[in-house]
Specification:
The complex is a heterodimer of chains A (468) and B (128). By secondary structure, chain A is mostly beta strands. Chain A contains 7 helices and 29 strands. Helix content of chain B is 6%, strand content 38%. In chain B, strands 1, 3, 5, 8 and 10 form a 5-stranded mixed sheet that branches. The chains are: A mainly beta (468), B mainly beta (128). Strand 28 of chain A pairs antiparallel with strand 2 of chain B, so a sheet runs across the interface.
């Protein structure tokens, strides 16, 4: 889309009723005039009804002199209570020298401000600040005897905030994670941005899942009633070892949750003696492996041979003995026997622990169950995981942003959640004007409206009011 | 619920702005005044915006005034049909026809086949 060439003027007539007119939609930053012929050359009878479906500004441009004798008063910016403050992060090379500048007055007016760091190019200069043409903050940096810049970010912050006019325009502060201790460098003039006179009410959703520390506040990225059409669902994929994934279909965000993988049951023996332990791992992963048991039996006889028998899921290893009846089977021999047994090898795989050789003689061991087998599929995504994944999915990030709900730290595992709509989003409507001809009329008689669309769009109805 | 005792007037100012709020809720057939003090007696600067709440059509009738002071009250009421789910802007209005002898403006809301259900925003435009 594009902005209209001009705003359509709707004339209100006395003792009459005007059907609610269609609005002009403004979706692009730029100037749209109210044409002189349409308003009868009477800017002071023009009022604008602006409906914000996002963060927008409608600034009335100063006129031409002549005829606008009060033109030096400048543009008219009318921020509402929901106005957003412009800001810019000046981020020179290096660490601990970032400075965030935020306009002290919220609204689009702040977008006119700029910040510049100037290297004086001379040795032994002092740090000082000036404001050029009421909007350009210029920081003249200090230098050492050799001409190198010595001003730290902290010194720049102090100088700007203390300056009688710069400190009136902006507040300077350390950037996130910056201590301000490092020296800055020269930075070209950089404008503040993100100021808007109107920001429609953002739809939001605070989840209320079972469990702790897993609730999130989802907020529509763009304000307005349209945000109420956004839905979020957390879906249990119903399978093991699934990755966290976010998909977006129009306004529907679906978060497919991460699930745990299936795990094979296992056990490592803990026999008396050295180098005689083995690890038994279920061949088939899953919880069923937890029913497998291993027993080492001392046959209590002389010259017995090593033997493996299986009953159900119980594996019994009858150990070899010598002529005196002492056990002679080593761990390596047990390993070989189990892995060679036709039934046992269908249940478990025997292996040596890391660094073991299996040369040690084993001992008898009572029935020992494998443990830790898990079918997988349990949800493992935490609230923090989901916030990050949504933020890194452009289509989802264009719709919502997430933050930990109050008293939540994001470490809790979430649960599945049916598609749930954000609520509370509302368009913001305001009447602007009428406007003073002596300040705003152009030399062609037009009234120029400078629209700034930070996000979303605006509907504008231009009324020509009756004479008061 | 019931209708408000009077309509709330939002003054517009030159080079100013005003939020277009929810407005006064009308849910009952009846007459609601605009108080003289609220519009400064300047009926010629009063605009009444009526938004039907998508329930049923209604008729908004601005009642003729008393003579005196409304010397043209004989022209009668001004009736405006507001279709379901639409908005109309009424006014400004002629004092000589509509002002009551207590200075008020009287506005009657009548639903078609039921209670009037609408929201009303009333503005006082500045002198120009």
């Amino acid at each position: 889309m594009a902005n209209p060439a001009k705003l359509t003027v709707r004339t209100i007539v006395g003792n009459n009723a005007l059907a609610w007119p269609a609005a002009d939609t403004i979706d692009t930053t730029g100037t749209v005039p109210v044409v002189a012929a349409d308003m009868g050359g009477e800017a002071d009878r023009v009022a604008l009804l602006v409906t914000a479906r996002g963060a927008v500004s409608a600034r009335v441009a100063a006129g031409d002199l002549p005829p606008a004798v009060r033109q030096p008063l400048g543009d008219l910016s009318l921020p509402l209570a929901s106005a957003l403050a412009a800001s810019v992060l000046i981020n020179p090379a290096g660490a601990n020298n970032d400075v965030l500048y935020t306009a002290n007055v919220a609204g689009s007016q702040g977008n006119q401000l700029s910040v510049q760091y100037i290297d004086p190019g001379l040795p032994s200069q002092s740090l000082w600040v000036d404001v050029f043409e009421r909007h350009a903050i210029r920081v003249h940096l200090a230098t050492g005897a050799g001409g190198a810049i010595t001003s730290t970010a902290a010194e720049v912050i102090a100088a700007v905030n203390a300056h009688w006019f710069a400190g009136h325009l902006v507040t300077a502060a350390n950037g996130a994670g910056s201590s301000g201790a490092a020296a800055v460098t020269a930075v070209a003039e950089t404008s503040l941005a993100g100021g808007a006179d109107m920001d429609a009410t953002h739809a939001a959703l605070t989840t209320a899942l079972a469990g702790d520390n897993n609730d999130i506040i989802w907020t529509a990225a763009v304000g307005g009633a349209a945000g109420n059409d956004i839905t979020i669902a957390y879906v249990d994929p119903g399978a093991e070892d699934e990755a966290l994934a976010v998909t977006v279909t129009e306004n529907a965000i679906e978060v497919s949750l991460e699930t745990s993988p299936e795990v094979a049951a296992s056990v490592e023996t803990e026999l008396t003696g050295e180098d005689n332990d083995l690890v038994f791992t279920a061949v088939t992963p899953g919880a069923a492996g937890n029913s497998i048991t291993i027993t080492y039996t001392d046959p209590a006889g002389n010259d017995q041979s090593l033997d493996v028998t299986v009953v159900g899921t119980d594996i019994n290893v009858s150990l070899a003995t010598g002529s005196g009846g002492a056990i002679t089977s080593t761990a390596a021999e047990v390993l070989a026997a189990v892995n060679a047994d036709g039934e046992a090898k269908l249940l478990v795989l025997a292996s040596l622990p890391d660094g073991a050789t299996g040369a040690g003689v084993v001992t008898a061991m009572s029935e020992t169950a494998l443990t830790g087998g898990d079918d997988g599929g349990a949800i493992t995504s935490t609230a923090a995981d989901i916030i990050t994944e949504v933020a890194s999915t452009p289509a989802a990030a264009a719709l919502v942003s997430g933050a930990n709900a109050a008293a939540n730290d994001g470490t809790g595992v979430v649960t599945a959640m049916a598609a749930t709509a954000l609520t509370g989003g509302a368009d913001l409507m305001a009447l602007y004007g009428p406007f003073e001809s002596a300040r705003f009329v152009q030399d062609n008689g037009d009234l120029n409206i400078n629209f700034e669309i930070l996000n979303g769009e605006a509907d504008v109805i231009c009324f020509r009011l009756p004479r008061g | 619920m019931a209708n408000p005792a009077k309509l709330t007037v939002t003054p517009l100012t030159v080079n100013g702005n005003a939020l277009r709020g929810a407005g006064d809720a009308i849910d009952t057939n009846g007459t609601v005044p605009v108080a003289a003090a609220d519009y400064g007696g300047a009926m010629g600067r009063l605009l009444i915006e009526v938004t039907e709440d998508n329930v049923r059509a209604l008729t908004v009738t601005v009642l003729h005034g008393d003579n005196p002071p409304a010397v043209r009250e004989g022209l009668g009421d001004l009736a405006v049909a507001v279709a379901q789910n639409t908005t109309r802007v009424i006014g400004p209005l002629e004092s000589a026809r509509f002002v009551q002898n207590d200075g008020t403006l009287q506005v009657t809301f009548t639903g078609t086949g039921g209670a009037a259900t609408c929201h009303v925003r009333t503005y006082l435009i500045p002198k120009n």
